[in-house]
Design goal:
9% strand; two-stranded antiparallel sheet; mainly alpha; 64% helix
Length: 173
C-alpha cells in the first residue's frame, strides 16, 4: 500500500459551484461582477485579511521604531500580502479565472497562501519580539498574527488535504 497526500479543491474560494453548461454560460458571463462572491465565506475572509493587514501596516508605520530592519520587513511582507490578496479578490469578483484558463488559479492561490502565510508568520514573530512594549508595534504584530490566522483559515476552508490509500496488489484468495 502506498500513502500519499493530495490537495483537493473544494470550490469555496471559487465563488460557488462549477461553471454552468455552455448553453447557459452566455447569460452568466454577461454580468460584470460576481455578486455572490461578496457575501461568500471566502470573500469575507479575504476582506478581513486585507483589513487586518492594513491596520497592522498602519500601526507599525505610525509608531516609533527601535529596529529598522525588523519593521521594514514586516511592512514589506504585509503590503505584498495585501496586494496579492486584493489581486485574487479582484480575480474572483470579476471572474477573470473564467477568461484566463491558461493559469491554474487554484494552484496559484494555494501557493500564494502557503508562502504568504509563512512569511507573515515570520514577520509577525520578529515584530513581536522587537516591539519593546511600544503600543503601536504590539498592535501591528497582533494584527499580523490575526492576519496569519485568517490566511490559515482561508487556506483550510478552500483546500482539503486528504491522505489516500492506494492498493498496489490484487486481491488474493
Amino acid at each position: 500500500m502506498s500513502h500519499g497526500a493530495r490537495v483537493i479543491r473544494t470550490g469555496v474560494s471559487s465563488g460557488g459551484p462549477a461553471a454552468p453548461p455552455a448553453a447557459s454560460s452566455a447569460g452568466s458571463d454577461a454580468e460584470l461582477m460576481d455578486g455572490a462572491y461578496f457575501r461568500s465565506c471566502a470573500g469575507m475572509l479575504k476582506v478581513a485579511q486585507m483589513i487586518s493587514l492594513l491596520i497592522g501596516f498602519i500601526s507599525v508605520n505610525n509608531s516609533s521604531w527601535t529596529d529598522y530592519s525588523a519593521y521594514s520587513y514586516f511592512q514589506i511582507v504585509t503590503m505584498c500580502d495585501l496586494v496579492m490578496i486584493l489581486f485574487f479578490y479582484i480575480v474572483h469578483i470579476f471572474r477573470i479565472y473564467r477568461k484566463l484558463t491558461c493559469v491554474s488559479w487554484p494552484l496559484a492561490e494555494f501557493l500564494h497562501y502557503l508562502i504568504g502565510t509563512i512569511l507573515l508568520l515570520i514577520a509577525s514573530i520578529v515584530a513581536a519580539s522587537k516591539s519593546y512594549n511600544l503600543t503601536g508595534l504590539v498592535a501591528g504584530a497582533t494584527f499580523g498574527f490575526l492576519a496569519t490566522i485568517l490566511c490559515v483559515l482561508s487556506m483550510w476552508s478552500s483546500y482539503k488535504v486528504s491522505c489516500i490509500t492506494q492498493s498496489t496488489s490484487k486481491y488474493q484468495a
